[in-house]
Structures are given as C-alpha cells and as structure tokens.
Amino acid sequence: MNDQLPTAFDQALAAAVRAPSPHNTQPWRFVVDGDAVEVWLDRDRVLAVADPAAREARVSCGAAVLNLVITLRVNGLGARVRILPGAALPDLLAVIGLDGTRRSTEQDRGLAEAVHRRHTNRRPFADRAVPAVARARLKSAALSEGGQLEFLDASGRYPKVAALVRRAESLQAEDPAFRAESAFWTGRAAESPDGVPTVAFGPRYEIPGVVCHRASHTNPAVPSRAFEQDPLLAVVLTRDHGAAADVRAGMVMQRVLLTATAEGLAASFLSQPLEVHGIREQFLELFRGLGQVHALLRIGYGHATRMTARRPAAEVTAQRAEPDVPAV
Q: Where is the signal peptide (predicted)?
C-alpha cells in the first residue's frame, strides 16, 4: 500500500462516521484490511425496542458506506462496493475496495463537501415550497444509487402517512420500554460524542397534530414555534427487501440527504411508523407496488442548527491482524 492510501482512508473514515443514525447511536465498526474497508454492524448500538430487527441500523451503516465512497472518489480513487450480509456473517454489511484511480466530478466534490455540513434539523422549516428542479435532483440522486424517492404530496398517501406518524408517536409515548430507551440516548450534553444533545432538539410546537419532530426531541427551554403545516414528506424505497436492501437503502438515502444539503435544503426523519409493530405493516401497505420503504423524510428550507458530535473514526476502526480472520 503506497503512502497515499492511509491518508485517503483516514479522510474516508472520518466522513463515514458523519452518517446519520437513530438517536445518533452510530451502530457501525470498520476494519481496514489492506486496500479494503469492511463495514460491520455494531449490535451493541442497535435500539432493542425501536429497531429490534436492526433495519434502521443497517440503513445507517449504508449511509456511512456512501460517505466513505464519495470521499475516496474526491481523492482520485475508484471504489467498488460489495454488499454482503449473509447467513455466515450477518453483521459484515459491506466491503469497499479500491478500484484504480478516477477523476472526481463536480458533483462528487459537492457531495463530499456536504458530508461535513449535513445534519438532522428538528426545527421549523419555512413555508416555502421546494421547487421542481430541486425535487428532480433529489429523485435523480436516489435513482443513481439504485433506489427511489417518492414525494407524498403528489399522491393521496399524505394524510394517511401523517395519521400513522401521529398514532405511532402516541403508542411510543405510552410504552415505558421505548421511553426508557429514548431517554438513555437523548438529552445529552452538547459535547457528548454520541446520542442527541438537548441543544439539537427542536422547540415545542404551537399547534398540536403537526408532523415535525418526535415529542421526545423537544427542548422545553426554547420558546414554542409554529412549524410548517404541510411539510414536504418523501419516502426512500428499494425494489427488494432484506438486510442487503437495508444497506443499499442507506446509500440511497444518504445521497438524497447530501444532495439536499448541497441544494440548501434541510431534512429530518420521521421514523415512528417504521418502529411500531402493527403501524409498520399499515405504513408499508400504503406503498405496496412501489417497493420497500426504508425511511420517511421531512424536507424543506430551514435555519442552520447545531450539529451533533461523533465518535472519532479511530475509536471505531480496527486493522486486520491476519488475513481472513475477522477483527471484530
């Protein structure tokens, strides 16, 4: 391995850990094996109540894969991705190997720059429509990674989805186990390397029933604010389903989020209907025929908010000690 590679890998891994994850749990581990990086699911950081099947955790790891690949590309390195979860090693999600050199594009550079600016925005968005050209770019971003982005305001699904978000939120609020899990990961100090600090919470909403952030992500010290009444909602889909599709969906979702950041847009997650048994089935049924839904996003124009911290890449990365022997 020549002298360029450690620097390129260091930058790529620093970008990988900037990926989003539920409650900023950061459910990933990386192993550098020669000219390749393995991405492993960290079971200790999977939300046992909200995400018992680790679907959201695998999506997060897929987002980390996309950040890593984009950063290698802007350093002039080609990257090939193998998505690998299987029966033998179900937590080995992907291997990213170097594939010669390549000239980075202006789009690559824009996305790589957005990696370190993208963050979840739980605050009110402006009542300003996202223009058709920006929507087209977001849809194109999803397609380029083999997925699909479906905006809900163009269909009759919007009120049904909004109702399921509210119902799931209500059921989670009544669940002591969910509340305890959420409390463990949220309300942390601003400098916390994981979890969601209180400073990243949104304000109380003035009008009940709006679709915005989780009630558990409300900062009582911030004056209440009016949220947009009809936020732009979109779902991330893939044609297939299962563990490999979750990883692929994370790459799709992250390219959408990075494209949104590059377009000056903000985004947050509405994961509640995917986390509650019974509600999840109703939610997925709404999109039967389109594909498997992996994420529900709220997109719009928002004011800058504080970014949450991440654990250093070195803390979650190991070197392969011997060939063909897993290091995690």
A: none
